[in-house]
Amino acid sequence: MIRYAEALEILLREAPAMQKLREMPAVGQVLAEAVVSGEDLPPFDNSAMDGFALRVGAEGARGGMEYDVCGAQAAGDDAAEAGAGCWEIMTGARLPQGFDAVIPVEQVEVLVRHADDRPQRIRLNADVPHAQHIRRCGEDVAQGEAVLTAGTRLEAAQMMLLAALGVAEVAAAAPPRVALINTGRELVDDPRQPLASGQIRNSNGSYLAQRINDAGAELVLRETVSDDEAAFLAALQRALDAGAQVVLSTGAVSMGRYDFIPDALRGLGANLHFHKVKIRPGKPLLFATLPDGQLFFGLPGNPVSSAVGLRFFVEPVLRRMLGLPVEAPLRLPLADGYRKRHPLRFHLKGALAVDTQGRLHARILPGQESFKIAPMARSNAWIVLDEDAQDLAAGASVDVYGLGHLQAPSLAGVHA
Ligand code: AMP
Ligand code: MG
Prior knowledge:
This protein has 416 residues and is of the alpha+beta class. Helices cover 17% and strands 28% of the residues.
């Protein structure tokens, strides 16, 4: 049986290279190349206030000075040339050439108005330093500046920046195409269908499908098949026809009489890289390469085993395919001591919580058995203890991972 580190090395060796697409930017894309700005932001000098634009020189202007109002500039107006006096100016309006400061409307007194109420002459009620309330061209982003690095995932804030810079196309990693085949004659997919004797509901399927999506991949096929090699092989063929680069199965990889996956793969001429890893839960995990190069993960059927297989075996491969580096865990103190009596790498349902002094710690939840789903719904992080770890005292540092590789360990729903 191999250790996790060895398994990870094999996975990363076999993972296909990232494929680049040139696309319109969209939330969820992972950048394959840095974005270099083709524009200045702001694109021109403009006013940060509704007020009056002035020429004050290096010394600035003193309160009490009076100016004639010789023009007006609103957002959207073209470039203008400043003459004598001052101009009324609106927030975001292009600063007329020659002005070098803006005084807010609240800091002036209008002495004379035109018949239509526009200001004609004003007095400053405050000193005006040079360059006050001017947003400079390129002050936020200069043309030619690299604003986002390769490996950045686009979310609302990145989309705002790309929108501001007029970026219509980015190089993004092609989402890995993944297929999911649940096996088990006991499985029922339809939640409205009453369970017959011996049946259970397919709980893995919806979890894994959602997680595959959350991991930045595209689910190209999802099927449930009975413990029937021919049915499985037919589903596998449909997965490959749908363009899957990575195929996941659940169930039928252990030592039971109906655990047909390893033999089915051998029959196809697949290359089995490993079957069984020193981990808990999910030890019987299998990894193979299919004859045409697609990757195959045989995940054990227990819900938590399949979740661990996805998170710690499949997701590292998806990261590689997205052009992302190998993940590093957070290190956090354990809330309570823990007895660990097996030389396996443990992947534990964890909950981050904050103590009375506001310090974060990691709690190992009760109910770690691989069939127990209820604690999964209370867990906001994975706590990982390596093979060699033994009994741990409260306060010992442990590795903590987010629920998915693109999610930081979450504090949502944390109770002290
Ligand atoms: P297997 O790996 O096929 O031996 O399954 C191990 C355990 O997980 C058995 O108790 C199965 O009934 C259960 N199981 C298998 N597939 C699923 C699934 N999709 N959802 C929930 N439980 C499952
Ligand atoms: Mg089974």
